[in-house]
TrEMBL record:
Source species: Aquibium oceanicum
GO biological process terms held by the UniProt record: DNA repair; DNA-templated DNA replication; error-prone translesion synthesis; SOS response
Amino acids binding Mg(2+): 55, 148
Family statement: Belongs to the DNA polymerase type-Y family.
Site (Substrate discrimination): 60
Gene: dinB
Domain UmuC residue range list: 51-231
CDD domains named in the record: PolY_Pol_IV_kappa
Name recorded for this polypeptide: DNA polymerase IV
Taxonomic placement: Bacteria, Pseudomonadati, Pseudomonadota, Alphaproteobacteria, Hyphomicrobiales
Function description: Poorly processive, error-prone DNA polymerase involved in untargeted mutagenesis. Copies undamaged DNA at stalled replication forks, which arise in vivo from mismatched or misaligned primer ends. These misaligned primers can be extended by PolIV. Exhibits no 3'-5' exonuclease (proofreading) activity. May be involved in translesional synthesis, in conjunction with the beta clamp from PolIII.
Quaternary organization: Monomer.
Cofactors that this protein relies on: Mg(2+)
MF terms in GO: damaged DNA binding; DNA-directed DNA polymerase activity; magnesium ion binding
Length: 443
């Protein structure tokens, strides 16, 4: 197929059709001469670039719409109920002002006709694995960023696929819609920084290219917040210094930027000029495993919070065991009624994957925070991950720990056979829905 595309490769501005993949003989046509589609890909560096960022479009909402066709033309919000936040929203809801991380009451005020669906993380993870497998069929260099996005390096794959990376990516996007039933946007460039920017440019179902020759001019008029690491606080610092656009950074010397902003100044210098030497790493591992839930009403008492903490600890433990990993640092997360986040952590002597140990450590941290403060969210997780072979050695001081570990193993076996509700601990038994956390916060 690539051989048949020789004229297009000689004149990349002629491009190809993203729907039927047919090469285009000229550069002026607005529609594909083969199928009539207006979705044409053209760019002077189209066939020279090989680093891509693929991002599924409104992933959670897209999966739900795929499974419930009656929602196709309706605004859909994925989130944790009235007191939760928006995990994601379809593009119809976004047009009405709904945004990710927005409190649910604000989202429903902006789009009262929206259909709200609680997240089903297990389903999304299954679809995410399916998408990941399709990516890995393109190149071994796939670096996942989240459940629904990844960087890919397709350099050197032309002989394998019989076509240049740009066409491989367009074919992937087309096959994703046909085989999985969701869409994705593709950003193609020469570095990670610009590939990520490109994937956001034409959502949904986008395919954007940023070449090396145009990088500096493309970035010049963009706001400084486009640069990774420039959040709200740092943006205010730059604005106080009179710096609002990337073009202003391009005119500044590296030394001056580093003197003003330290290591961040060096990042500003390089990224403002489209200089990003980071490579795609296939072995990108998770840094933590956690679970959290948002309450329908604020909670303050240990009697209400402890059962939820126990259930979340069991959830994290289950994920660690299935993945064959363990964590050494336990992290407690709390969000107050006024949306302020508290995080507390404790490092263990050895890595663990036991719910009992995660919970007992989290409980010690929680006791110091139950001072009457009302919380809208609680989460527990572990970091500093390692192989499970190093986890939970016998404790010569706490002689009961071995018995608790054996009991937990027996409970796991029963749950695997009869379901999670087959066995409950005294912490969660009879405690109601708050002791069965919603699936709105896994990572």
């Amino acid at each position: 197929m690539f051989a048949a595309m020789a004229p297009a490769v000689n004149n990349p501005l002629a491009g190809f059709c993203r729907d039927c993949l047919a090469r285009q003989p000229g550069i002026s046509a607005r529609r594909c001469e083969a199928c009539g589609s207006p979705r044409l890909a053209r760019h002077a560096e189209l066939y020279r670039l090989s680093l891509a960022h693929i991002d599924c479009d409104a992933f959670y909402a897209a999966v739900e719409k795929r499974d419930r066709p009656e929602l196709r033309d309706k605004p859909v919000i994925i989130g944790g109920g009235k007191r939760g936040v928006v995990s994601t929203a379809c593009y119809i809801a976004r047009i009405n002002g709904v945004r990710s991380a927005m409190p649910m009451f604000k989202a429903l005020a902006a789009c009262p006709e929206a259909v709200v669906i609680k997240p089903d993380m297990e389903k999304y993870a299954r679809v995410g694995r399916q998408v990941r497998e399709m990516m890995q069929a393109l190149t071994p260099l796939v670096e996942p960023i989240s459940i629904d996005e990844a960087f890919l390096d397709l350099a050197g794959t032309e002989k394998l696929h019989g076509m240049p990376p740009a066409l491989v990516l367009a074919r992937f996007a087309r096959n994703l819609e046909k085989e999985v039933g969701i869409s994705a946007s593709v950003g193609l460039s020469y570095c990670k920084f610009l590939a990520k920017i490109a994937s956001d440019m034409q959502k949904p179902r986008g395919f954007a290219v940023i070449g090396e020759e145009e990088a500096v001019s493309f970035l010049a008029d963009k706001p400084v917040t486009l640069i990774w690491g420039v959040g709200k606080a740092f943006d205010e610092v730059l604005e106080r210094d009179g710096i609002r656009t990337v073009g202003q950074l391009q005119k500044m010397e590296r030394g001056d930027l580093m003197k003003r902003y330290g290591t961040m100044g060096e990042r500003l210098y390089h990224l403002s000029r489209g200089m990003d030497e980071r490579r795609v790493h296939a072995d990108h591992e998770a840094k933590s495993v956690s679970a959290e839930t948002t309450f329908d009403t604020d909670l303050a008492s240990p009697e209400d919070l402890v059962p939820v903490l126990r259930a979340l600890s069991e959830k994290v433990s289950s994920r660690l065991k299935k993945a064959g990993i363990a964590g050494r640092t336990v992290v407690l997360k709390l969000k107050t009624s006024d949306f302020k986040i508290r995080t507390r952590n404790r490092q263990l002597a050895d890595p663990t994957r036991l719910a009992d140990r995660i919970f007992s450590t989290g409980l010690e941290l929680l006791r110091k925070e139950t001072d009457g403060t009302r919380y809208r969210l609680i989460g527990i997780g572990v970091g500093d991950l390692s192989d499970a072979a190093r986890a939970d050695p016998p404790d010569l001081v706490d002689l009961q720990s071995r018995k608790r570990a054996l009991a937990e193993g027996a409970i796991d076996n029963l749950r695997d056979k009869f379901g999670r509700s087959a066995v409950e601990t005294g912490y969660t038994f009879g405690k109601g829905r708050n002791a069965r956390p919603q699936r709105d916060g896994d990572s």
